[in-house]
Amino acid sequence: MLKWMIISLCLLMSGLLQAADIQNVRLWRAPDNTRLVFDLTGPADHTLFTLSSPERIVIDITGASFSANTNTLPLDGTPLTGLRSAPRDASSLRVVLDLSQGVTAKSFALPPNQQYGHRLVIDLFDNDQPRESISLPTPDVAAPLPPSTAPKVNTAGGDRLIIIALDAGHGGEDPGALGPGGVREKNVVLAISRELQRLIDAEPGFKAVLVRTGDYFIPLRKRTEIARKHSADLFVSVHADAFTRASAFGASVFALSDRGATSETARLLADRENRSDLIGGVGGVSLDNKDQVLASVLLDLSMTATLSASLDVGQQVLAAVGKITPLHKRRVEQAGFMVLKSPDIPSILVETGFISNPGEAKKLVTKSHQQALARAMHTGIRDYFHRYPPPGTRLAALKAGGKLQAHRPAEHTVSRGDTLSIIANRYGISVSSLRDANNLRSDRIQLGQTLKVPAGSMLVQNEP
Q1: Which of 135, 148, 369, 373 could connect to 363 by a Cys-Cys bridge, CB 3.0–4.6 Å?
Q2: What is the mean pLDDT of residues 176-205?
Q3: What is the model's pTM?
Q4: Strand 333-335 to strand 92-99: parallel, antiparallel, or no bridges (unpaired)?
Q5: Which residues pair with 452 in a beta bridge?
Q6: pLDDT at residue 8 greater than cutoff 60
């Protein structure tokens, strides 16, 4: 009798140990969807269905309990108005999501990875913003595609702007690399991208589009689809990654390689970035699988011209960034980053530094360094397109008509974070010429000081 009691107790304890507890709930809002993530102590099967009048989503989870505190979930701006849970029966838990409007729900479980344990992900897609499948252009097999063959939206008279898609890496469920003191890559690169957007939008003939506008997750292939939807002339993915050695330092610029990586660092960084979908979760097989197969075919047919442009603009950006921060490598590296696999849009990935390096992490979180990095990337992008303006753009028309010439502001007021080298780089002149024009005996400058800017070679539009 005692033996059977012990066996029964062991079986009961085994069942209790295998039960999954929902210990935490996280919520992320994107422009067209809301993601709810349940952190569980173990795997659990679930079913999901919807109810109307009022709108609700019901999730039944087998062998689960609910101990998470949901009182502080940021529900504002989402279709969620509340979350309730209660045991459905002796062996399952029921979670009810109360909604203010109908949504299209998708759910999937994710296994543990290097950052999270077991997760149940509920994606709620807004019904008034249906997801579109982006069709890739069909190339002329006889000739490589020129950079950015996607249809462009023209302004009056076909005088269109050059569109730069800025992709702040990671986001939401995927924090990216983690540095000392809780520094998160996703926050640093979004700040840099926003500053770069401001600078590009202020440049005549240019417009910047943020791929990720807030703290939410976007699958890797969706990022390039967003760039194509905006008819981008250039895709720039901004990162600040980590490495196995804390001593690794320096900024880098990458272009795609469909063969081998140019260094061990490049291979490891690409592997890390390409795991982003596993961390953030894309819900298994994509419904856009045909697009993925087509993209692979187009890559072989049309990548030559696009990759050449990517390497060219990448070198311009690398040279500019190298003037304000140390470089990890002095040439554009290549690796198989999935986010760069767009066959018709020149694409680069900029590693602004290593968050795993305590010294670089300390700089990367400062606004002044973020602004300096953005200014350098802006300089490289601007200089490339002044040399090679795409046909049909305002810059191409101005260059063809001889209306682009050396011109610059006569003065510059020193702002926070400025150094003499940063100012010189901004206007495409040497530090010595800037020092001579202002009779400076050293490189020391003061906040609010007005400096004379000597003539140089930067191309900007003449004022009428």
Answers
A1: 369
A2: 92
A3: 0.70
A4: unpaired
A5: 411
A6: no
Both tokens assigned to 23: 């210990």
Distance CA 351, CA 252 (A): 5
Kind of pairing, strands 234-239 and 347-351?
parallel
Instruction: Work out the pLDDT band at 409, boundaries 50, 70, 90.
Output: low
Cα distance between residue 177 and residue 443, in whole Å: 35
Structure tokens at 170: 């990671």
Residue type for position 413: T
Cα separation of 282 and 337, whole Å?
17
Residue 371 CA to residue 384 CA, distance in Å, equals 20
DSSP β-bridge partners for residue 168: 238
375 vs 139, 199, 263, CA distance in Å?
Answer: 35, 7, 27
Task: State the DSSP H helix or E strand holding residue 109, giving kind and residue range, or none if neither.
Answer: strand 103-110
> How confident is the model at residue 132, as a pLDDT?
40
Contact (CB, 8 A) for 176 and 170: yes
pLDDT band at 28 (very low <50, low <70, confident <90, very high): very high
Quickly count: other Cβ atoms within 10 Å of residue 417's Cβ: 15
Please, which residues have CB within 8 angstroms of residue 285's CB and are 6 or more apart in sequence? none
- Residue 239 to residue 236: CA distance in whole angstroms: 10
Stretch (H or E) spanning 298: helix 289-321
Q: How much is the pLDDT for 157?
A: 40
**What is the pLDDT confidence band of residue 421, given thresholds at 50, 70 and 90?**
confident
Decide if 66 contacts 8 (C-beta within 8 A).
no
Pair type for strands 459-461 and 404-406: antiparallel
Is residue 409 within 8 Å of 453, Cβ to Cβ? yes
The token duo for 312 is: 């060219």
Q: Tell me the one-letter amino acid at 302.
A: S
- Does residue 218 contact residue 171 with C-beta atoms inside 8 Å? yes
Cα 448 versus chain centre, distance: 34
Q: Which two tokens stand for residue 108?
A: 């999937």
Quote the tokens at residue 69: 């505190």
Q: DSSP states of 431-443 as a string?
A: HHHHHHHTT-SSS
Which residue bears the tokens 């950052």? 115
Is the pLDDT higher at 408 or at 23? Answer: 23
* 411, burial (CB in 10 Å: exposed 0-12, middle 13-18, buried 19+): exposed
